[in-house]
Amino acid sequence: QVQLVESGGGSVQARGSLRLSCAASGNTYSSVRMGWFRQAPGKEREGVAAIYTGGGRTYYADSVKGRFTISQDKAKNTVYLQMNSLKPEDTAMYYCAASPNLFGGSWNGFDYWGQGTQVTVFS
Question: DSSP assignment of 65-93, as one string?
Answer without folding.
Answer: TTTEEEEEEGGGTEEEEEE-S--GGG-EE
